[in-house]
Design a protein that fits this description.
The protein is α/β, with parallel strands linked by helices. The protein folds into 2 domains: 4-204, inorganic pyrophosphatase (n-terminal core); 209-332, Diaminopimelate Epimerase, Chain A, domain 1 (Roll). Helices cover 39% and strands 18% of the residues. The chain has helices at 4-10, 27-42, 75-84, 100-106, 138-148, 157-170, 180-192, 196-204, 209-221, 238-243, 290-296, 314-327, 329-332, and strands spanning 16-20, 46-51, 69-70, 87-91, 112-117, 128-131, 223-226, 231-236, 266-272, 277-283, 300-301, 305-310. The strands form 2 sheets. The protein has a 6-stranded parallel β-sheet with strand order 3-2-1-4-5-6, with helices on both faces. A 6-stranded mixed β-sheet has the order 7-8-9-10-12-11. The radius of gyration is 20 Å and the shape is globular.
């Protein structure tokens, strides 16, 4: 981050600070937000965390998660809290469009804006940016941010638990976007006393019977393999959502099961929402699904993990996605 000295000076006296992250927050969004929240509280700031929508159940155990303000539930409180802010942090998103109406509230405000994020092609709406697409997660960058400020001594077990949660989820238990630097960070968190086995159980071993039956349904009845494109697709209808009572976070990680197959290079998870069709894409190796998400589905993300959306309906979106794959056939099979 350029001008880290200016940020350090800004944080040297108590401020009213708001931390924001993206809609449908995942482990990295909530982990990075709560880690920064706990750190800034130690400095004496008044801090609030705001998400556009609710977070999944598997992160509800995290310290002070119950204090997060959800715009969909408390829009008036969200607006009044944002308007009071001296500093707004944008975590795990690179454009104010990613936070919908919350972004519309933030855009015109004269307060200081700071972005910490690891997605490609950031918008330059913040005065200060720590943007590093090669990072495993925003949690890794929050650790870097605290280190840049010379405040590693402020790290403790609760902060470390939040950081490790985001790192575990965004790397798929250290399968993606790892580096020697990342493992050094994780080692330092364990040295603090963070219990990695406990965190792993909270995040990955807290599903109920419904989740496993839903996974079985996806793999048995909703999976399609396109061998000529080395692609697997899983799709869910609105009726599926009703029958399995699917709540936020219940479908987390399902798309990754497609990549367990040796001959599959691209995985797509396409779901019919009440007013939109959501598309989650993953890939192995050098093929970038970010290009598909950005060009065709008004989305983006990372090279090997991106998402987007469509208003064309489920059947039309599935057909469109299959037709799009033909454009990339040579690149996929290279």
């Amino acid at each position: 981050m350029e001008n880290i000295g200016e940020v350090k000076k800004l944080l040297s006296v108590p401020k009213d600070i708001v931390i924001t992250s993206h809609r449908n927050p995942d482990g990295d969004a909530i982990g990075s937000s709560l880690a920064l929240y706990l750190y800034l509280n130690k400095l004496g700031h008044t801090v609030r965390v705001i998400f556009p929508s609710e977070y999944p159940h598997f992160v509800s155990w995290m310290p002070d998660a119950e204090k997060i303000i959800i715009f969909d539930i408390e829009p008036e409180l969200t607006e009044s809290t944002i308007k009071r802010a001296d500093i707004i942090f944008s975590l795990d998103y690179n454009s104010l469009d990613r936070i919908d109406k919350v972004g519309e509230m933030i855009r015109p405000l004269p307060c200081t804006k700071i972005m910490i994020d690891h997605h490609l092609n950031p918008d330059y709406f913040a005065e200060y940016m720590l943007s590093e697409p090669s990072a495993s997660s925003t949690c890794e960058l929050v650790y870097d941010f605290i280190e840049m400020l010379g405040e590693k001594d402020k790290l403790d077990i609760p902060i470390g638990e939040c950081l490790l949660t985001g790192i575990l989820t965004d790397t798929g238990s250290f399968k993606y976007a790892t580096s020697p630097k990342l493992f050094k960070i994780v080692a330092s968190l364990l040295e603090l006393g963070v219990d990695d086995t406990k965190i792993h159980d909270f995040v990955f071993n807290s599903q109920n019977e419904k989740n496993l039956r839903l996974l079985g349904h996806c793999l048995k009845d909703r999976m399609e393999i396109l061998e000529e494109y080395q692609t697997g697709i899983i799709w869910l209808t609105r009726r599926d959502y009703e029958y399995y009572d699917i709540q936020r976070g219940d479908t987390e990680g399902i798309v990754n099961f497609l990549l367990k197959m040796k001959n599959i290079k691209i995985a797509a998870f396409i779901t019919e929402q009440p007013t939109i069709v959501k598309i989650s894409l993953r890939s192995k190796g050098d093929f970038s699904v970010e290009q598909i998400a950005k060009k065709h589905f008004k989305g983006g993300g990372h090279k090997n993990a991106s998402g987007g959306s469509s208003y064309k309906g489920l059947k039309s979106t599935l057909l469109e996605f299959k037709n799009i794959l033909a454009e990339y056939k040579e690149e996929i099979n290279a």
